[in-house]
Amino acid sequence: MNRRSILQTFLTGFLSASITSYAAGKDLKSLIVFYSRSGHTETLANTLAKLTGAETIRIESTSPYPTDYDATIERFKAERAANTLPAIYPIEKDLNSYDVIYIGSPTWGGHLCYPIQRFLQDTKLRGKTLMLFTSHGGSGEASTLDDLQRLAPGNQYRNIAFYGSGFGASKQFKHWLSI
């Protein structure tokens, strides 16, 4: 084995162990922040919490979205046309004390949902590792990572997208966390 192969093997193992620390929460303080209208993203957040031991915080709009899907779409379209984001309840945590923040969002119109966009706009996260997980109905990740990078510049980013509530999410999360 030449020096390059030995170095690659060492670095791969080192980086894998470092990322696994994110998952286990051993070395870095982590938090899961999510919004869920239908429960899909909440299911993903709870699965991730079981795997990482991270605490969860649910983002809530001060004016909740309707439970009816079509009514939610109409409200989303009106907010998009008016270029407005909904007000959300404040987070009672010092986010600066966390190294890794997992952010969970449904994908709405190819983007992060508006409550998560408001959260990111209001919190001004910097110097963190932001690990985005999204649920979608067929659009995949779409522009969600671009949204995260635009609304929370100056961080490190990773992302994963799940169809619906993410059948088999535990296995996918384990793989994502170990990369």
UniProtKB/TrEMBL annotation:
Single GO term (MF): FMN binding
Name of the protein this chain belongs to: Flavodoxin-like domain-containing protein
Signal peptide: 1-23
Cofactor: FMN
Record SUPFAM superfamilies: Flavoproteins (SSF52218)
Flavodoxin-like domain segment(s): 30-179
Species lineage: Bacteria, Pseudomonadati, Pseudomonadota, Betaproteobacteria, Burkholderiales
Keywords carried by this UniProt record: Flavoprotein, FMN, Signal
Pfam assignment, any one: Flavodoxin_4
